[in-house]
Task: structure prediction
Amino acid sequence: MKVTNPIGVFDSGVGGLSVLREIRRELPGEDLLYVADSGHAPYGDKSTELIEARSIAIVEFLISQHAKAIVVACNTATGVAIETLRTRFTIPFIAMEPAVKPAAANTRSGVIGVLATSRTIASNNFAKLHERFGADVKILMQACPGLVEQVEIGDLSDDKTRALIALYVEPLLEQGVDTLVLGCTHYPFLAPLIQEIAGSSVAIIDPSAAIARELRRRLTSAELLSIKGRTGTERFWSSATPDMAQTIISQLWQVNVAVSSWPSEAPIDAGRIFKQDACG
Ligand code: DGL
Result:
């Protein structure tokens, strides 16, 4: 493995670009590959089998592109598939974890809120976090159906997005929350609106920068960090329709980028199990 090999990053859609952005800040010399499985977003209303199958297919693709490490920039895929991925592949994985620990350290009211998809909230990883910190602080978990979809279409501040955020955040504020954890990688794109609705006294915690630092630590200890002074590149793939993918990724990345199609073969209808709440 060469130190100049790229880092693979993927998400159910465009949300992981919020993590990619922090990786770019932390590691300017690395080449980055990003796969958005927007053709299947949100993962929140798909079966475990489908999320695992999609995650495996994406990881195989990233490995075929010579990735030296893979960042699972999706809390839902982490919760559902990370154990399978770690068992199946030897490549280093860096995965998401809702930032409950820093939130527990930050809160003064003793009440923190976690905004996430229903799948993340129902995951084992999350149950473990709750066990670890739930004795010291009150943790209120809030599923946010619809928000992933709003980010996927680039509606970061329209009336519908605003109404959804108010619906999810206001009850948390009424219960004394002073710290909000963004437990889904799509939500950092909504952070300005969440902050506006929650008010300036509420802290918003996004784990993306910590994930980027963890990636640096892992690459350093594996002696895989790229050469100093090098300028890294980015390449993008998406399973959404090409025009849509190009528009949204360029909007969120804030640069006009080329996006290649990534084939999206896995059947999706057979896999739906959370149909009723279409959790975003
Ligand atoms: N960005 C994904 C996450 O962090 C969204 C999940 C979904 O597609 O449901 O969980």
Notes: The first strand starts at residue 7 and ends at 11. DSSP finds eleven helices and ten strands in the chain. Strands lie at 7-11, 32-36, 69-72, 93-95, 111-116, 138-143, 179-182, 203-205, 234-238, 259-261.
